[in-house]
Design a protein that fits this description.
Layout: H1 4-36, H2 40-78, H3 81-115, H4 121-133, H5 136-152, H6 157-181, H7 185-213, H8 227-260, E1 264-266, E2 269-271, H9 279-315, H10 318-355, H11 362-376, H12 379-394, H13 399-419, H14 428-453, H15 460-494, H16 498-520
Antiparallel strand pairs: 1-2
Helix pairs in contact: 1-6, 1-9, 2-3, 2-4, 2-5, 2-7, 2-8, 2-9, 3-4, 3-5, 4-7, 5-7, 6-7, 8-13, 9-10, 9-11, 9-12, 10-11, 10-12, 10-15, 10-16, 11-14, 12-14, 13-14, 15-16
Length: 533
């Protein structure tokens, strides 16, 4: 037990840092959206901001982390710190050179497109912001590498605090730097973009300081033919392939929203397109809102359950393993049902409370709320997929989830391209396609897990528990909707402050829904523990 206390203490510290990061991230997004509204400027910024993050997920937190962490840890444990530092120097050099080449090539492409878009100032704005923020890709991937090193050395808090630095600097950028540059949104957004670059440098310097304080020597040695480096590259390639296919879906959705929303001009004729300007902003706002509870509930539950799954898999105790996976799955589905139900009935009040100020209009709120509502129908699948994913990982199987996800990419794209043409759906098509493919992924994943473990995960008890959960969710959603529909008009006549009115309306309805949810729960004495999940 004493040996576990430092781990528990670190986990609590990381959880606090992660929560602070998510809160500051939500505040950052609120201020950015309110400053620019769901229009061309915000679309351009979100597009440009997403490109470095896609490379971070591919290199820094994807392939490199999967290949570097075990190699670095192995060198540290078996050969000592000098050998590990030598590997770090060569990895750092390889990553820096690779990313620098990619940045230069992409900058050349962007400049070329920018030169040929002189008759389209809106397109030039998007390309200029992308070119300006592209170097952030270099710093954010190196920051991810340094964070991995700190985690290997059991120093978790500095890496967990790093995202907060980005959020705070961007808040300063949108609140102070942008307005100081100009009163025009098209110019202010460049102040925000510059703050992203500054934040990347600050993050890098902070982690460099921490690493030096821990006695880590940071060299730079470009030796791609080194045996350990070559082995690491071999480990990276399959992960990059799988991760790249998954990120391709996100990238294609972004292209559809950003480049085709205003319509297409070709061969001297205008071809109207079903999405309006602001589609990317609308989609991003809805995604930020559903990802917040998903991270707090679904991902946290999966992370907590993963060690138990792995321990039971190592013992080959498949009956208990299936029991634990099923119990965690019920908890995840229940959390997804409840949060999804609240999103469906309170989508508009939530968006209104957080974003509808200054330049973010009521029309923007209605568009974002429609997308958020459709995401709500899939919250159970989003939460459940993280449990299914950890189930595969506990078996040492990383390929099957990639195969499932790769299969879903063309389905997702096809659904999006078809549904955007329907009136009343439009940008919500991306939410519907994501919900559909996530549901299919969970179902297929559970079938694969059953074959691997040779024990049923979804049993009659699980189905009964699911029906109970759905009933509780319907009661909660109905009570929440009734409270919102009944209270708003009377409250509006007595609460003069708009923010206070929206807060009381949203949180009051949510609290009443939670009370009804608690009262709808079956008594523990009459319900077996697993079914009460």
């Amino acid at each position: 037990m004493p040996k576990e206390r430092p781990v528990i203490s670190s986990a609590k510290s990381v959880a606090i840092c992660t929560f602070v990061s998510r809160i500051t991230g939500m505040l950052r997004d609120m201020l950015i959206v309110q400053a620019f509204g769901a229009g061309l400027v915000l679309d351009s910024f979100f597009y440009a901001f997403q490109i470095p993050h896609l490379f971070r997920r591919l290199f820094g937190e994807g392939a490199l982390a999967a290949a570097f962490v075990p190699t670095f840890t192995g060198a540290l444990e078996t050969e000592g710190r000098p050998a590990a530092e030598k590997l770090l120097a060569r990895t750092l050099a390889l990553l820096t050179v690779t990313l620098a080449v990619i940045v230069v090539l992409l900058e050349a492409i962007l400049v070329t497109f920018w030169a040929f878009s002189s008759d389209n100032p809106d397109r030039q704005l998007m390309l200029a912001l992308t070119a300006l923020m592209l170097p952030f890709m270099l710093t954010i991937c190196i920051v991810a590498l340094f964070s991995s090193i700190l985690n290997c050395l059991h120093s978790f808090v500095p890496a967990a605090l790093i995202p907060t630095v980005l959020n705070v600097v961007m808040i300063i950028g949108v609140v102070r730097v942008g307005p100081l540059m100009s009163s025009q949104p098209e110019v202010q957004v460049f102040g925000l973009a510059i703050s992203v670059l500054v934040a990347g440098v600050i993050q890098l310097l902070m982690l460099l300081y921490v690493l030096r304080r821990m006695g880590i020597s940071l060299g730079w040695s470009f030796q791609p033919r080194d045996e350990k480096v070559r082995r690491m590259i071999q480990l990276m390639l399959p992960v990059m392939l799988g991760q790249g296919v998954l990120l391709l879906s996100v990238f294609l959705d972004t292209q559809i929203c950003a480049f085709l929303a205003p319509g297409v001009n070709a061969f001297g004729a205008d071809f109207p397109y079903p999405l309006d300007v602001g589609a990317l902003s609308t989609l991003t706002v809805a995604q930020r809102l559903y990802q917040f509870p998903l991270g707090v509930l679904g991902v946290s539950l999966a992370i907590a359950a993963f060690p138990t799954f792995s321990r039971l898999a190592a013992r080959e105790d498949w009956q208990q393993w299936s029991h634990e996976v099923a119990g965690s799955l019920r908890l995840a589905v229940f959390a997804g049902f409840l949060t999804g139900g609240v999103m469906i009935v309170l989508a508009e009040p939530i968006v209104q409370l957080l974003f509808e100020y200054r330049n973010f209009s009521a029309t923007d709120t209605a568009r974002s709320a429609r997308v958020l509502m459709f995401y709500g129908f899939g919250m159970w699948a989003f939460c459940a997929w993280h449990i299914v994913l950890r189930g595969f990982y506990s078996l040492g199987d990383v390929r099957t989830p990639v195969k499932i996800s790769c299969t879903m990419v063309p389905i997702n794209l096809a659904l999006s391209l078809v549904l955007i043409w329907f009136e009343g759906i439009r940008e919500a098509a991306f939410a519907i396609s994501t919900v559909t493919t996530s549901t299919l992924s969970v179902l297929v994943g559970l079938l694969w897990l059953r074959k691997r473990a040779e024990h049923a995960i979804v049993t009659s008890r699980t189905i009964r528990a699911g029906i109970v959960m759905l009933g509780i969710t319907l009661v909660t959603a109905a009570a929440t909707y009734w409270a919102h529909a009944s209270w708003y008009a009377p409250l509006a006549s007595i609460v003069p402050n708009q923010v206070l009115l929206r807060g009381i309306d949203t949180f009051g309805a949510l609290a009443l829904g939670c009370v009804h949810s608690s009262s709808a729960l079956p008594p523990h004495s009459n319900c077996p523990k697993p079914a009460c999940y």
